[in-house]
Design brief:
The protein is α+β, with helices and mostly antiparallel strands and about 180 residues long. The chain has helices at about 5-20, 60-75, 80-105; strands spanning about 40-50, 105-115, 120-125, 135-145, 145-150, 165, 175. A five-stranded antiparallel β-sheet has the order 3-2-1-4-5, with no helix packed on it. It has a two-stranded antiparallel sheet with strand order 6-7. Helix 1 (about 5-20) packs antiparallel against helix 2 (about 60-75), helix 1 runs parallel beside helix 3 and helix 2 (about 60-75) runs antiparallel to helix 3 (about 80-105). The longest helix has 26 residues, at about 80-105. The radius of gyration is 29 Å and the shape is elongated.
Length: about 180
């Protein structure tokens, strides 16, 4: 059985952490399913690319510390292995924290919109399939304190009911005039 190098373990940790979080408007939290959301119409004023900073939950530092400690403790004799193990744990923790931050960082957009009442709002969300440009009609969907922006569906005129037929004394119906 081959041993994984510390670099390979750090890469695996980064990949595992990368799937832990998202701010994508295309992904809805399980707790938001089947909940009523507040919807507001707006128009896009501007869009600019931003980066959402990665998280620092401590998982990356802990994993890096363990990996660095184990890798360092396998060096030299007893005294050297303790010293190098401690040093490896410290360095591994710093590297693990950096890997976690980089793995959970997201490219996003800041969308400045104007509501119909004239108020302006700025929403930051991960890049998604929909792209926005100034002048686009959009809908702000707010659920549980989180707001996402989506393109507005073009409004259609409500269907007009068919006119009721007019009955005459002879029993024939005539179209309304």
């Amino acid at each position: 059985m081959s041993k994984l190098t510390p670099r390979a373990l750090a890469l695996l940790t980064a990949l595992a952490l990368a799937g832990c979080t998202t701010t994508s408007p295309d992904v809805v939290q399980r707790s938001d399913a089947q909940r009523m959301s507040q919807v507001q119409d707006a128009v896009v004023l501007s869009v600019r690319p931003v980066t959402v900073e990665g998280s620092q939950s401590g998982v990356g530092a802990a994993a890096g510390g363990v990996i660095g400690g184990v890798a360092g403790s396998s060096v030299g004799g007893y005294r050297e292995s303790v010293a190098v193990g401690v040093l490896g744990a410290v360095v591994g923790g710093v590297v693990g924290n950096t890997v976690e931050r980089q793995a959970t960082r997201e490219d996003a957009v800041e969308i400045l919109v104007q509501l119909k009442n004239g108020e302006r709002r700025a929403i930051v969300q991960a890049k998604a399939e929909q792209t926005f440009a100034p002048g686009d009609p959009v809908v702000l969907v707010t659920t549980g304190g989180r707001t996402r922006v989506t393109k507005a569906v073009p409004a259609t005129a409500p269907a007009q009911p068919a006119p009721a037929p007019v009955y005459t004394p002879g029993g024939r119906s005539q179209p309304p005039s």
